């Protein structure tokens, strides 16, 4: 009995101890289980939401031609040993004779110049093309319009016009001499206007002319040639039946930091300039506009010395901003925003702020266009490390969805040539949203809530055969 008694109490106590430990563990396990179930539910709900039937579950990589584009293509570029004279600017930048690929890119006298800016001979003339080249994009080569002239649509974007079932590509027409207006200022070309090109197949581009032209004489006009007009984008307003162009308007010192608005009855212009302002009263430099599926449109611009982006809805007629504005990617110093949407999630590619020199792109995602926006990392795949760290020596400008291939987009970027801006090139590459994001994300408790945005390097590629240019977007 004594022995029994001796052990009874402690036994009861141990039991009690074990019991409470046990129930704590059960509680914790159930909590974890609930959390996992909740995450699973959210994930399934998220992928099903607004995807439209089977589309949400359709992985782009099930298409063999898209799978081909997802193959990682490496580049082996060797920097040649220094030879001959280097430009004074290159010497100043890096006095020692060790050179990197980026030095070579920025050196006008580099022996590798033809690698980054292949000459006219290798241009693709859509009228005299051999079958092997037809519909193929060669990132970085000179692209010609249907008349054989180099396409001038830098920092641009594409509008799909449902009325005419035609794509319109708008951008900076920079076919003038490059010079420095101020000793320390950025290289520039006087404003000539906004170039417009039309296409049915996204490959053959017909020049429609300059749809918004510079002002030659009135020096106080925003569009006076001595000013800056960059990154024009056009959206169509179904209610007013007007084509509305938004653009970055600045002086040659980039101190005006405003947005300009122009309007037209037709996609191929002419556009009527309405004026400029600082959106929400803030500086605005690199910018874009984004039209959502519900017809609401938004402006996104780099502000506060390019240290953050601002996002806000436009008025119903798209001619102004409303009073609503959110600051996003605060302190991240991003510019060149290009926004797109996939299965109800908003994505954005941005660049860093290094003038005309290339830098690392980042992909961001958000549940609501107004944020919060989360940074997911560098989307570039393939090439080599330097290619990936310089966005393939280019800077984002627009992301265009490919109808019929949910999750597939064309990433449009500019390979700026600061020594001769008119000779800047276009780097278009397949952008695919698929698979889990690389990094655990802040707003998703570490779960791969959003999909990875991947931009695949290819020397030569084409859109999947059978893409339907006329499917409603
Ligand atoms: C980077 C911007 O993205 C370009 O649009 C242009 O403004 C250059 N800076 C000018 O240096």
Verbal overview:
- With 473 residues, the chain is of the alpha+beta class.
- The chain has a single domain (60-74, 96-462), classed as Tachylectin-2, Chain A (5 Propeller).
- Helices cover 16% and strands 32% of the residues.
- The protein contains six helices and 25 strands.
- The strands form seven sheets. The protein has a five-stranded mixed beta sheet with strand order 20-24-23-22-21. Strands 2-3-6-7 form a four-stranded antiparallel beta sheet, with no helix packed on it. Strands 8-9-10-11 form a four-stranded antiparallel beta sheet, with no helix packed on it.
- The radius of gyration is 26 Å and the shape is globular.
- It binds (2R,3S,4R,5S)-2-(hydroxymethyl)piperidine-3,4,5-triol.
- Residues 155, 186, 230-231, 286, 335-336, 355-356, 395 line the site of (2R,3S,4R,5S)-2-(hydroxymethyl)piperidine-3,4,5-triol (DGJ).
- The chain crosses the membrane at residues 21-41.
- Residues 83-94 have a biased composition (Basic residues).
- InterPro entries: Glyco_hydro_43, Glyco_hydro_beta-prop_sf.
- Residues 69-94 are annotated as: Disordered.
In short:
By secondary structure, the protein is of the alpha+beta class. 16% of the residues lie in helices and 32% in strands.
């Amino acid at each position: 009995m004594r022995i029994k008694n001796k052990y009874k109490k402690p036994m009861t106590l141990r039991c009690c101890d074990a019991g409470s430990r046990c129930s704590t563990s059960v509680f914790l396990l159930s909590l974890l289980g609930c959390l996992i179930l909740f995450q699973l539910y959210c994930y399934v709900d998220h992928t099903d939401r607004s995807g439209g039937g089977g589309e949400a579950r359709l992985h782009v990589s099930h298409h063999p031609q898209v799978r081909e584009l997802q193959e990682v293509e490496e580049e082996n570029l060797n920097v040649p040993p220094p030879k001959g004279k280097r430009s004074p600017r290159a010497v100043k930048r890096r006095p020692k004779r060790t050179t990197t690929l980026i030095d070579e890119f920025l050196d006008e006298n580099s022996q590798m110049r033809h690698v980054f800016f292949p000459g006219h001979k290798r241009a693709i003339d859509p009228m005299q093309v051999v079958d092997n080249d037809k519909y193929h994009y060669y990132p970085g080569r000179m692209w010609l319009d249907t008349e054989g002239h180099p396409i001038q649509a830098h920092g641009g974007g594409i509008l799909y016009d449902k009325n005419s079932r035609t794509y319109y590509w708008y951008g900076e027409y920079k076919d003038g001499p490059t010079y420095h207006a101020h000793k320390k200022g950025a290289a520039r070309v006087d404003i000539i206007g906004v170039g417009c090109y039309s296409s049915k197949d996204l490959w053959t581009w017909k020049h429609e002319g300059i749809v918004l032209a510079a002002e030659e004489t009135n020096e106080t006009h925003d569009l006076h040639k001595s000013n800056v007009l960059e990154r024009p984008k056009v959206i169509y307003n179904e209610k007013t039946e007007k084509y509305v162009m938004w653009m970055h308007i600045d002086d040659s010192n980039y101190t005006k930091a405003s947005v300009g608005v122009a309007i037209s009855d037709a996609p191929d212009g002419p556009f009527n300039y309405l004026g400029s302002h600082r959106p929400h009263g803030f500086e605005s430099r690199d910018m874009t506009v984004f039209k959502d599926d519900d017809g609401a449109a938004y402006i996104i611009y780099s502000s506060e010395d390019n240290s953050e982006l601002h996002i806000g809805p436009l008025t119903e007629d798209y001619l102004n901003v409303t009073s609503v504005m959110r600051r996003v990617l605060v302190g991240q110093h991003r510019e060149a925003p290009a926004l797109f949407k996939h299965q109800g999630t908003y994505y954005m590619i941005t660049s860093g702020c290094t003038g005309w020199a290339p830098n690392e792109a980042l992909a961001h995602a958000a549940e609501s266009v107004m944020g919060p926006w989360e940074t997911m990392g560098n989307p570039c795949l393939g090439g080599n490390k330097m290619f990936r760290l310089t966005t393939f020596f280019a800077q984002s400008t627009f992301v265009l969805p490919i109808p019929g291939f949910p999750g597939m987009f064309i990433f449009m970027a500019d390979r700026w040539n600061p020594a001769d801006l008119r000779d800047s090139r276009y780097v278009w590459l397949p952008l695919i949203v698929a698979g889990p994001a690389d990094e655990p994300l802040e707003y998703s408790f570490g779960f791969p809530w959003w999909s990875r945005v991947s931009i695949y390097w290819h020397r030569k590629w084409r859109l999947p055969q059978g893409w339907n240019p006329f499917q409603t977007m």
